[in-house]
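[worker-b] picked up task from shared queue
[worker-b] task type: protein-ligand structure
[worker-b] ligand name resolved to flavin mononucleotide; SMILES cross-checked against name lookup, match
[worker-b] sequence length check passed
[worker-b] input payload:
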Amino acid sequence: MEKRNHSLIKQVIYVSKPIGFDEKILDRILAQSAVNNKKNNITGALICRSDLYLQFLEGPAHKIDDLYSRIKVDARHREIKLLEDTRSKRRLFSNWAMKGDPAKDWMWTESEVIDGILDRLSKNDAMEVFVRHSREIDQFLS
Ligand SMILES: Cc1cc2nc3c(=O)[nH]c(=O)nc-3n(C[C@H](O)[C@H](O)[C@H](O)COP(=O)(O)O)c2cc1C
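[worker-b] inference finished, payload out:
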């Protein structure tokens, strides 16, 4: 029974607020993540805007747990809130990518974020954002 979830990958989604959001900080996160995630067999996406980070991470459970505990104490953001923590047979993303402000009509306006829309986001809504995002980047077609 202990082995029940062994073959499943772990998927987490969290949201946070950037501290000192600029090109240099983003470049550094991108560089660290690209190397580490590849090495750790972690895929997913990081949506970055000046008012929020929204990240989807998937991979071997212990690797995701390690990474999430590092991310939680990272001084480059605050108010880290876990929105989803689940297991899956299949990955949603084939690699890891960082995406600059998707000011898309399906995302939220800055005032919605200030009004706390992310505090009311359900697990399903959070997952839906990344399902749409993964389709949008058409990663499995290229
Ligand atoms: C919003 C945000 C997202 C991050 N995403 C990742 C990630 O996907 N992978 C990663 O290895 N580090 C990520 N980091 C950085 C980690 O918090 C941590 O600094 C890093 O993993 C340490 O790597 P190092 O041991 O190679 O220096 C992220 C940091 C922030 C602020």
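[worker-b] attaching auto-annotations
[worker-b] The chain has a mean pLDDT of 87.
[worker-b] releasing lock
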